[in-house]
Amino acid sequence: MADILQLFMPIIRHHLTISDLSNLARVSHELNDLITPFLYRTVRFHSPGRIDLDDQLLLQLDILGDPRFDKLVYTRRVVVSGWDMQVSLTQVLLTTVMLRQRLQRLRIRMGTNCTPKPFFRPPLDLHNTVRLRVIHLIQVDNILVLQSLGVALKNATQLERLSIWADDRSELKVSSLLERWHTPAQFRLRSLDLRGFSDIGIPAKVMWAAIPTTKLKELTLEFGPRLLVQDSMEFWEASAQAELRPIRLRVNLGVRGIQDFISSFAGLEVFHLVPSDTLRPMEPIRILVDALRRHHSSTLRVLGLCPFLSGPTCMLDVPVMKYLVGALPDIEELRLSQPLMIALCVGYAEIPYGFQTKSLALDMSTGRYF
């Protein structure tokens, strides 16, 4: 029976509940060895917001923290739920589960829906040998937590994808994450996603010296209005000098200088210019489209554009729409964000037969993202 189950387990395991797997594991030693990797592939922790005398979470952490407990070698995913956890429980959770060698992905909400008490209270003394490949941190709202995470991430040698979404009301800066890095990070990111930060806080040249760009192919940056025009222009200049060559780029930094960066390389497949709540002057749409045509027309398949509040040259009017259609005829997905003017432009732009766009998304509101 064990041999048969082993043969078909990759197929039938999706139809078995945790209770079913637990029952199978108790049938025999052979089935226990077979089922155990599936039982501990995902570990779930839930805190009801209080500690009882017979607390199941404490018991669970005690078991998992026992050095004789070796089942976490199979863990690939950790799910944490509940309203609040004390520092001691958080520390046990991180040191027991997060640092397991075979754990590859970690997704944590760092705050509790903007409540006064953050989900993870600082300071956290994280170990510096994180072996995760993917880290996604949501609603980071405390500078001490951000600093402690920076210490841990510095030596995460296998990290490939890093996503940090800060609470935009916390006024955090990217520099707080990097300020204790005296040498470049040992990891080589393929994807970097930073959102909600009010500012970079350091020159972009210093940022890219700390975060190597040799393998960085997916970049998302959405900064707040405190990032000044000269800082944005310096960012694009430093990015070109750092030889940043993304194939997927999503930014709200459409200021003058971005066209020089786009012109410094080839191979973009996805380019999204998302809305910003700042009055920074934006590079005219036609100039951006022309840079994309000259350097990325053979590879670009997804294009998202939105206007900034910086004058008529940044409007998606009829002439610009006609130019866009003629300049980039091979676009497969086009996303536009502007009030009613877009619908009128699309209606009168006389999009020619043969335009290859398979998907056209129109955002008729002014406050929504793509």
Protein traits:
single chain, 370 residues, alpha/beta, Leucine-rich repeat, LRR (right-handed beta-alpha superhelix), 2 domains, 10-stranded parallel beta sheet, two-stranded parallel ribbon, disordered C terminus
Shape: globular
* Rg of Cα set: 24 Å
Structural class: alpha/beta
The average pLDDT is: 75
Strand sequence of the main sheet, in spatial order?
3-4-5-6-7-8-9-10-11-12
Stretches with pLDDT under 50, minimum 5 residues: 114-122, 339-349, 364-370
Strand fraction:
15-25%
CATH topology of the largest domain: Leucine-rich repeat, LRR (right-handed beta-alpha superhelix)
- Which CATH C-level class of the largest domain is it? Alpha Beta
Compute the number of structural domains.
Answer: 2
Main beta sheet: 10 strands, parallel
Could you say what the CATH architecture of the largest domain is?
A: Alpha-Beta Horseshoe
Organism: Aspergillus bertholletiae
InterPro entries: LRR_dom_sf
Protein name: F-box domain-containing protein
Quick rundown:
The chain has 370 residues and is of the alpha/beta class. The protein has helices at 2-12, 18-25, 29-39, 56-65, 87-98, 143-154, 175-178, 204-210, 229-241, 258-262, 285-296, 318-327, 341-348; strands at residues 42-47, 77-82, 105-109, 134-140, 161-166, 191-195, 218-222, 248-251, 270-273, 302-305, 333-337, 359-363.
Textual characterization of the structure:
- This is F-box domain-containing protein.
- It comes from Aspergillus bertholletiae.
- InterPro entries: LRR_dom_sf (IPR032675).
- It is built from 13 helices and twelve strands.
- Helix 2 packs antiparallel against helix 3 (29-39) and helix 4 runs parallel beside helix 5 (87-98).
- The protein has 370 residues and is α/β, with parallel strands linked by helices.
- The chain is globular and about 70 Å long.
- It folds into two domains: 1-39; 98-362, Leucine-rich repeat, LRR (right-handed beta-alpha superhelix) (Alpha-Beta Horseshoe), CATH 3.80.10.
- A ten-stranded parallel sheet has the order 3-4-5-6-7-8-9-10-11-12, with helices on one face. Strands 1-2 form a two-stranded parallel sheet.
- The chain is 33% helix and 17% strand.
